Structures are given as structure tokens and as C-alpha cells.
Amino acid sequence: MRNLFMVIVVMASLFLSACGSTPPSHFYIMTPIAVDDSSTADKTPVNIKNIGIGLGPLRFPDYLSRDSIVRYKSESRLLIAETRRWAEPLEYNFSRVLAENLSRLLQSDRVLRYPWPAWRKPEYQLVMDVMRFDANGKNEVELIVQWALLQGENKKPLLEKRSRFVQSAADDFDSIVKAHSRALAAFSKELAIAIRASDSNNIQDN
Fold first, then answer.
1. Which CATH number is associated with domain 2-205?
2. More confident residue, 168 or 41
3. Angle (nearest 5°) at CA 88 between 172 and 192
4. In whole angstroms, what is the distance from residue 52 CA to residue 107 CA?
5. 3-state SS string over 55-86?
6. Torsion sign over Cα 11, 13, 16, 18
7. Most CB atoms closer than 10 Å: which of 73, 124, 164, 171?
8. Phi-psi map region of 137: left, alpha, beta (phi>0 left; psi -120 to 50 alpha)
9. Considering the chain, what is the average pLDDT of its residues?
10. Quick one: what percent of the chain has pLDDT higher than 70?
11. pLDDT score of 35 more than 90
12. What is the spatial distance between Cα 2 and Cα 8, in angstroms, rounded to a whole number?
């Protein structure tokens, strides 16, 4: 009888331990474009290399201001993956990877993230409002950004645009995060083209 009691106690302890355990978290991060991705950099004229670019202010929607990766279940329902987390806040990861992408695409080591020191005076500034950046429930990652390109200390507006990028993704988090990186890479290339065109026009005008 005593042995049976001990077996029951051990089994109950194991059961409670299993019920109380927390599944391990997995951490993800977006990555920059490959160094050898020269689809835009090769077209950068020598006279605008190392141009100064300021990134920000950057605004993100509040529903993405969390560590957990967010997915759409339906048009108005979100899934919060509690054990699938960003290794750093998504807004910071976005600006950091965007800065690295533009540095590589435009061959510049003067890409600054907001806020930058007062003595740093970039020739151009990108102001961005991210409307969404998530898996949309259709095996896709969708990025929508309202952005403006400003010039000089007087912040002369050169271009304002709303951009949308969609990248396919399988129904697993590795694929979803890679699709985030590809969407941000596509946005980076669009910005690099806009900056290059604006700077070339400015050189011609002068």
C-alpha cells in the first residue's frame, strides 16, 4: 500500500511539473541584404557615393510594439505568437537593417539613424510611417510605408510616397522572418533609387 501511495505521489508530481512548465521561446531577427547584392550599388555614380542620409523619425503601429511575432488570422483578428519572439524590438531591427541595406546599396558609410548628433548634417532625410509589417494570413508578409524624402537642413520635401511590398512565406516562422527581410530589402532598394535620382537631379541643377 505504501509503495502504491509513493507511485501516486511521484506521478502527481511529474504531472504538475509538466503542466507548470513553459515552452521554450525562439528568437528571430531580420538580416540585411547580401554584400554581393549589387543590383543597385553598381548603378551608383561615383560623385554621389558616401552621401549622408538620415533615417527617421520612424513610426511603427502600436500593435507591433511587442516582442512576440504578430500574424493575421483573419481581416480583424491577430495571432500573437508568445514563444516566437523578435530578438530586439521590431522597430529597432527595421531601422538598423534599413541603415545597413542603404549603406551597402549606396556605398555610403554616412547612413545615420534618428536621432543623430547635431554636428552631423546629412544631405537627405527619410521620414517614415510604417502602417503594417506582418504576416497577412495569406502566406504572405506585407509591408506598407508612408514615407518622405527631405533635403538639407531646411528639410525641403523632394518626394512623398506610399509604398507596399508583399513577399510570399510558408506557414512557419523561419520562412515568415525571411519574408520580412525580403520585404525590407525591396523597400531599401526603392529608397536607394529615389535618393540616387534626387541627388543626380540636384547635381545637374547646380
1. 3.40.50.10610
2. 168
3. 85
4. 11
5. EEEEECCHHHCCCEEEEEEECCEEEEEEEEEE
6. negative
7. 124
8. left
9. 86
10. 80
11. no
12. 10
HEC string of the chain equals CHHHHHHHHHHHHHHHHHHHCCCCCEEECCCCCCCCCCCCHHHCCHHHCCCCEEEEEEECCHHHCCCEEEEEEECCEEEEEEEEEECCCHHHHHHHHHHHHHHHHCCCCCEEECCCCCCCCCCEEEEEEEEEEEECCCCEEEEEEEEEEEECCCCEEEEEEEEEEEEECCCCHHHHHHHHHHHHHHHHHHHHHHHHHHHHHHHHHC
Output the nine-digit C-alpha cell for 186: 525591396
d(CA 57, CA 55) in angstroms, rounded, equals: 7
